[in-house]
Design goal:
Length: about 230
């Protein structure tokens, strides 16, 4: 069973990688290799700042107790891993803590958290309004784009950010630098179709991943209990 789910998981990951290559135009091109029926218009070059507001973060004074352990979610880059969605941060701040620093509340469901330093380009879609520390340049997607479409192209954004990053202590991309990045976008309707396709594919990958982890845990537990 473990081997079967591992194979299914690996196969789905391979399918996703292949479709990301074929459903987005190659560098220098405006038409992808594979498209949904009914879409023929070439994609357009647009700056990231045209389809999203790029928002940084801030940190309250850690020496002031009244700023911490409140009810406002406050993310740090280390919290972002393989999960697609986040809805609860490890640390939380109070209203006083929020007001004391440059953190900005990010709206749920249209924000993609994007780490901007020391591991550039880790992402997650925000499911509940929250703010971040200064290790982020998050993307608040406007009405001209589909959130899951943009999330699906974050590897391209990550590559751009890594190339443009600078700094003597550690590499970092600024909000202005990220907003200036140019990428190809289709119409909103085509974005929605592509976004829904990858959302479903990611859902299947996550299901097999969870099943695989569950079976591995069951095996580990039984190995402990069925041997003296």
């Amino acid at each position: 069973l473990i081997t079967l789910h591992q194979r299914k998981y690996d196969k789905l990951c391979t399918v996703k990688k292949s479709m990301l290559d074929k459903m987005f135009p190659k560098p220098g091109e405006l038409v992808p290799e594979i498209r949904f029926e009914g879409f023929t218009d070439p994609w357009e070059q647009r700056k990231l700042g045209e389809i999203a507001e790029v928002v940084g973060g801030g940190t309250p004074n850690t020496g002031v107790e009244s700023y911490w352990d409140g009810d406002i979610d406050w993310y740090s880059p280390a919290e972002l891993g393989v999960q697609i969605y986040v809805d609860c941060s490890v640390r939380k701040i109070t209203k006083a803590g929020y007001d004391s620093c440059s953190a900005t509340m990010l709206p749920a469901n249209i924000t993609i958290l994007f780490t901007s330093r020391a591991g550039i380009g880790n992402t997650a879609i925000l499911r509940r309004s929250a703010c971040t520390n200064q290790g982020f340049q998050s993307l608040v997607i406007n009405d001209s784009a589909d959130v899951y479409f943009v999330y699906s192209m974050t590897n391209k954004i990550k590559k751009f950010a890594e190339q443009q990053a600078s700094g003597s202590t550690f590499l970092e991309i600024s909000g202005k630098g990220l907003a200036a990045g140019e990428f190809t976008f289709p119409s909103k309707d085509e974005q929605i179709k592509i976004g829904a396709f990858f959302q479903q594919l990611d859902h299947l990958i996550t299901l097999h991943q969870r099943k695989l982890e569950l079976l591995k845990n069951v095996k580990k537990s039984l190995l402990d209990k069925m041997f003296v």
